[in-house]
């Protein structure tokens, strides 16, 4: 890899997966420690003025964007300002910017898979913040790659998977929507995709724009939960016997979570040659890492 790569957010689950996979392929990252209060516009300005990398992978706010249960509007607004400044700095210093985003920029009213061309109508605070961040990146930094991921699953104890498994150990009853669909995406698979994109950019291929990626085989949140429990029973005794089906509309997060969140991944295949990988194949190693943490 000829490019000097800077990774913001090397301490979170996706950042760690990226560092692990990079090490296997002899790809290293500058992964600076964030300041006490996290990365903001001022600290990012100083960092990029001093280091001048060739590319920045911005996972600084990964947990809030993809795993946290609740994030305040004020926190999202501060992150928006920071990413806007980051995009301006990348343009000023001729740095390539790889920025993650999410299926949450869509409202979930479309029953068929979302392509990159579909209109974005985000539902909740998180989706709206990600939509505005996408817009500011496009406006400020033409040399960007926006990667919208499906349902990201990682091994963090307080992430989506961790909260679900904690409930499975404590509760006798669990319900998940059987009419909510998406692409589960283990964090190692997301890291594989980021590495593949970086390799192409290292060849100076001007493949800027927005791309979708989600694990192979769209499924319901109920079927995903059942698959996770089947694997988890190899590690722990669970209280819950089986998961009950529930309508999307009856779920407590129905106002924020798109009902239909399946992403079409043809563009990333045709542009970068990245094939979707079966999410079920990634569950055993994901759960193994999770249970080593708890």
Automatic annotation (TrEMBL):
Pfam families hit by this protein: RmlD_sub_bind (PF04321)
This enzyme's EC code(s): 1.1.1.133
Superkingdom field: Bacteria
One BP annotation, GO: dTDP-rhamnose biosynthetic process
S-adenosyl-L-methionine found in the keyword field: no
Entry's cofactor comment: Binds 1 Mg(2+) ion per monomer.
InterPro entries in alphabetical order: dTDP_dehydrorham_reduct, NAD(P)-bd_dom_sf, RmlD-like-bd
Pathway: Carbohydrate biosynthesis; dTDP-L-rhamnose biosynthesis
Cellular component terms per the entry's GO annotation: cytosol
Main enzyme class: oxidoreductase
GO molecular function, one term: dTDP-4-dehydrorhamnose reductase activity
Keywords annotated in UniProt: NADP, Oxidoreductase
Annotated RmlD-like substrate binding domain residues: 3-291
Swiss-Prot/TrEMBL cofactor(s): Mg(2+)
Family: Belongs to the dTDP-4-dehydrorhamnose reductase family.
Role description: Catalyzes the reduction of dTDP-6-deoxy-L-lyxo-4-hexulose to yield dTDP-L-rhamnose.
Record protein name field: dTDP-4-dehydrorhamnose reductase
